[in-house]
């Protein structure tokens, strides 16, 4: 019991903690259903991107955050390729209130993982023999706030 109290006091003295422990590739998929014919066409891609995040607690003050990016690329209205990357990270987060924790898991952690995911997306596409795609930076804070506002509006509407 004394050890737990000492740990709580030490944590309060340390203040908030947020640190990246590990970055890992959770899942990756690439499909090019029209290869090799797609390489013989004029390349005018139409890119649709889907972005999602999820998180879960996996230990005391340890959270897994997964950034899921899907690119569905068409050429002349026909599928060219589909790439899906799930970039994961383990974060130690302590000393934050619920609102701060939610914000860290929904914005800060995905922003930290994005460069790794972007590199995996690009490398996979190039290995499929397609031109490189450098995804533009994403403002995860703005996306987080937008999502929060939508949730609040839905809550207000349903009451």
UniProtKB/TrEMBL annotation:
Domain of life assignment: Bacteria
Subcellular location: Cytoplasm
InterPro entries, alphabetized: SecB (IPR003708), SecB-like_sf (IPR035958)
Keywords: Chaperone, Cytoplasm, Protein transport, Translocation, Transport
Keyword Metal-binding: no
Pfam families noted in UniProt: SecB (PF02556)
Cited SUPFAM superfamilies: SecB-like
Main location: cytoplasm
KW Membrane (keyword) present: no
Gene3D superfamilies according to UniProt: SecB-like
Subunit structure, as described in the record: Homotetramer, a dimer of dimers. One homotetramer interacts with 1 SecA dimer.
Protein role: One of the proteins required for the normal export of preproteins out of the cell cytoplasm. It is a molecular chaperone that binds to a subset of precursor proteins, maintaining them in a translocation-competent state. It also specifically binds to its receptor SecA.
The family this protein is said to belong to: Belongs to the SecB family.
Protein name (record): Protein-export protein SecB
Source organism per UniProt: Marinomonas arenicola
